[in-house]
Amino acid sequence: MISLDLSHAKLNEDVASWQEKVNEVDASLQNGTCTGNDFIGWLHWDENYDKEEFARILETAKRIQENSDVLVVCGIGGSYLGPRAAIEMVNGLYPADQKVEVIYTGNTFSSTYINQVMEYIKDKRVTVNVISKSGTTTETAIAFRILEQFMWDKYGEEAKSRIIATTDKARGTLKNLADTKGYETFVIPDDIGGRFSVITPVGLLPIAVAGISIEDLMKGLNEGMKEYGMADLNQNPAYAYAVARRILQNQGYDVEMFVEYEPQMQKVAEWWKQLFGESEGKDGLGILPDSAVFSTDLHSLGQFIQDGKKVLFETNLYVDQPPVDIPFPSDEANMDNMNYLAGKNVDWVNKMAAQGTLEAHEVTGNVPNIVLTMPGMTSYDFGNMCAFFFKAIAMTTLLNGSNPFNQPGVEVYKKNMFKLLGKE
Ligand code: PA5
């Protein structure tokens, strides 16, 4: 379970005084009358997910592990950030024992990047998982056409079993294409939006291919939905966090910096930024989600946070037990004068850095700090964290009176771009 500490958050209101509003919003979410209620499938997905499809994901992942060196995930936004966040968080940035490397395309128009991916995979055993709910996203469609032609050239008929489409259950260009060409498909449920979809086949297939237990992930999600299931702000840290954000917004803070002390959680921050930015940034409201990995970024952004304009508050996501800890060795010559740390563990140093930074930013820098602590970095923890942030963003956005589940603003650039590209 993720714990919450608001004692450094400099709130000028008592979180508990929001209880009545929270009760109302929670009731509207639970009984399905909230705004955006056609996209709340994630709320009971931990119980309602398709068990047969889940078994098929496990079988498909096993097959890919046996016949592929690389899984190319072709998708953008909610159709790739979640699996990438989970895989990097759990397996790390240089995973020595991950059988199949997972790489990403379909998330950019950069010809240089797309070509680099094609060069990288050309002599490897490849499976492609194209992921798109709408089936028409242009970044994804461009990369997929190139990939698909490559797969047919390389494998002929075998390409059919090496291309997998995760898309809408019945409609859409990609579903049509996959059925016509005989590719296996997995379903993105109608009532779960992209940024909530890591708990569906969108995330589960790539995560399973990376050798990570999706059973544990779903267990973490299920427990999380119970742990963050109550309306009571004293018992639900996700809702208390949601309220703290609203109070800080009312105090004039426009930016939330999501801070981690584990580099392999950087993509979790990217996933969180989409979840929070796309859900809340509308109707002229919302807190801009930003992120940093400390202590790395203390050597770049640290100056601004400490002494710059007071626009931001920090939300720290600490990890209680990292997967690995290492002792710092002693050195007889001690020419670097580092022996004062000899025999200490490096994670202890990381935690002391976090403590010192919290004090520097909060006390000297006058920056509000929210502290979240998760127990570890396992797939169970990832699933549990999804429940925490899903519940938090739904509550905090509904408290703003906005619809957490749409993203009308994303369409504007597409309209302009299509005009320039000459699309009918
Ligand atoms: O959250 C969202 O809905 C978006 O970020 C989408 O996931 C993203 O635009 C990709 O869309 P699609 O899955 O339809 O290709």
Automatic annotation (TrEMBL):
Residues forming coiled coils: none
Catalyzed chemical reaction(s): alpha-D-glucose 6-phosphate = beta-D-fructose 6-phosphate
Location relative to the cell: Cytoplasm
Pfam families xrefs: PGI (PF00342)
UniProt keyword annotation of Cytoplasm present: yes
Protein name: Glucose-6-phosphate isomerase
Matches recorded under InterPro entries: G6P_Isomerase, Phosphoglucose_isomerase_CS, SIS_dom_sf, SIS_PGI_1, SIS_PGI_2
Keyword annotations of the record: Cytoplasm, Gluconeogenesis, Glycolysis, Isomerase
Gene that produces this protein: pgi
Family, as annotated: Belongs to the GPI family.
Pathway: Carbohydrate degradation; glycolysis; D-glyceraldehyde 3-phosphate and glycerone phosphate from D-glucose: step 2/4; Carbohydrate biosynthesis; gluconeogenesis
Listed GO biological process terms: gluconeogenesis; glucose 6-phosphate metabolic process; glycolytic process
Function: Catalyzes the reversible isomerization of glucose-6-phosphate to fructose-6-phosphate.
EC number: 5.3.1.9
One Gene Ontology MF term: monosaccharide binding
Catalytic center residues: 278 (proton donor), 414
Superkingdom of source: Bacteria
Record carries keyword Isomerase: yes
